[in-house]
Amino acid sequence: MSYYVYAIQSGKDNRIYVGMSSNVNKRVAEHNRKRVFSTKGYIPWKLIYTENCGESRQIARSREKYLKSGIGKEFLKQINIPR
Length: 83
Hints:
Structural class: alpha+beta
CATH topology: GIY-YIG endonuclease
Shape: globular
Order of helices and strands: EEHEHH
C-alpha cells in the first residue's frame, strides 16, 4: 500500500489543509462531504498537491509535518499562486 501526502485548498477562503492518506481521491471526497470535523466549515475543497511517499507511513507522516510547518505552507503557496 502506498501512502500519499496531499494538500487541499478551500474555495471559501483559500486556506490550505495538509493531510496523508492511502486513497487521496476518497479522502478529498470525505472532506467535501463534511465528514472531517476540522475542514467541514470551509467547503468546497480542491486538490492542489499530492506526493507519493511509497509504502512508508512514517515517511508520509514526516512529509505531512513538514508541509504543515511555516516553510512547508510557503512552498505550497508558491506552487499554487492564484490566477
